[in-house]
Amino acid sequence: KDGDFLYYSRTFEGKSYTVYCRAPITIPPADADADETETVAEVDWDGSAETHILPNEEAYLDVNQLAEGQKYCSVGRVAVSPSQTLLAYTVDFVGGETCQLFVKNLETGEIVSHDPDLELYGVVLWGPNDETLYYITMDHAHRPYRVYKHVLGTKHSQDELIFEEEDELFWMYASKTLDKRYLLIDTKSKETSEVHYLDLFSDDNSSSDTALQCVSKRRKKVLYTVKHHEGTWFISTNVGGTPNMKLMSCPVGPNCEDQWMDVVDETNGVTLFDGGY
């Protein structure tokens, strides 16, 4: 569920690729006292490929069409804009996770942005509005190492570099917190990790590289990941020699690494794979 739509994907017999679909949420919760986060949908599907699963279903990206005439086709990321009217997606037509970036108008079907000379990693993320995108590029060894900010309507040569991982032992990934407030940049080697974050809704983002903050600077053989909830980072980590991982927390803000507090301590024989609120 995202905004006013339910998003899902379908596969059809005789076709090799996924079809990405969405349908508007038109039915309110049955109980007035129900949790507002719950969604009720009327499913009246006869099981055939020709009929919609939900009323007013829309196929907004058919990968079978993208693959026509291509020797190879793999979609990396599909991301709908905050207004639900634009679609950013990455496609690898050559193999090796070298992708191209497309932006499609979902109301007209028109491709409104595509630079065939821009090669990037499969990740693309929207900023706080329909004007800003973040993407990752790779070095000569196909290691994801740079994050750029792109403003729609401008040339990619004008894109702002907001982060670069210079250590060749570290790989990079980018995501957003569940509340979509923060852009997370995770860098990780086999034994060490580090997370930077950018408040997408801050008024102080005129220069993204200076607005970027670090949850905790990398420490040798310390791994951690973060989840955000109402101004708090929940941190899954092996800090302090806890190979089974433990859950800690700290407030979002400066000097966070000096304020880590135990939430769930390590349990012998039990591995904590993830944690949050």
TrEMBL record:
<dbReference type="Pfam" id="PF02897">
    <property type="entry name" value="Peptidase_S9_N"/>
</dbReference>
<comment type="similarity">
    <text>Belongs to the peptidase S9A family.</text>
</comment>
<dbReference type="GO" id="GO:0004252">
    <property type="term" value="F:serine-type endopeptidase activity"/>
</dbReference>
<protein>
    <recommendedName>
        <fullName>Peptidase S9A N-terminal domain-containing protein</fullName>
    </recommendedName>
</protein>
<dbReference type="InterPro" id="IPR051543">
    <property type="entry name" value="Serine_Peptidase_S9A"/>
</dbReference>
<dbReference type="InterPro" id="IPR023302">
    <property type="entry name" value="Pept_S9A_N"/>
</dbReference>
<feature type="domain" description="Peptidase S9A N-terminal">
    <location>
        <begin position="2"/>
        <end position="272"/>
    </location>
</feature>
